[in-house]
Design a protein that fits this description.
By secondary structure, this protein is mainly alpha-helical. The protein has one domain: Winged helix-like DNA-binding domain superfamily/Winged helix DNA-binding domain (Arc Repressor Mutant, subunit A, Orthogonal Bundle), CATH 1.10.10.10. 46% of the residues lie in helices and 6% in strands. The chain contains 6 helices and 2 strands. It has a two-stranded antiparallel ribbon. Helix 1 runs antiparallel to helix 5 and helix 2 crosses helix 3. The chain starts with 11 loop residues before the first helix and ends in a 15-residue tail after the last helix. The mean pLDDT is 89.
């Protein structure tokens, strides 16, 4: 059996749940931001192209603009259409997701993680427990080589 050198998606569900809770996003919002991340600039039609795949919400584009996830890059002028880009806030979200997928620990402090507050749902408590286990796993495997290295011999 061949083992992948990195197991990026092992904790994807936990990381996704944490990011949604931390930033107040829905699954569809997060998926849309992840889709648009590779687009430097995009028009409303590119947004709508992906929006057809996620749960339907009439005002998602405008809501994401008002909340600061999308910003206007160029206004419409003459025959040129309006262009948009992900904001600094959205780009930081995606970079943070990649950091967590690459092994950075999720914070467990009350100020940094809403899942660790007192009055949270049962689901939040289950994910909170998994975050603690995930962080321990990440710490344990941080310096472990992903593939076995052949033994090194002293030069002759």
């Amino acid at each position: 059996m061949k083992i992948a050198p990195s197991n990026y998606l092992k904790f994807w569900r936990v990381i996704r749940y944490y990011m949604k809770a931390k930033h107040g996003l829905s699954q569809a919002d997060l998926d849309t931001i992840l889709f648009l991340y590779s687009e430097s600039y995009f028009g409303k039609e590119k947004f709508d192209e992906f929006n057809e795949l996620v749960s339907w919400e009439v005002g998602r584009f405008e809501r994401l603009r008002k909340e600061g996830w999308i910003e206007k890059f160029r206004t419409r002028s003459g025959t040129g259409r309006a262009l948009y880009q992900l904001s600094y806030k959205a780009n930081n979200l995606v970079v943070d997701i990649y950091k967590k997928l690459n092994g950075e620990e999720i914070p467990v402090s009350l100020s940094s993680n809403p899942l660790f507050l007192k009055n949270v749902s049962y689901n939040d408590k289950v994910y909170r427990n998994m975050i603690v286990k995930m962080n321990a796993y990440q710490r344990e495997n941080k310096y472990r080589s992903p593939t076995p290295q052949p033994p090194r011999h002293a030069p002759e």
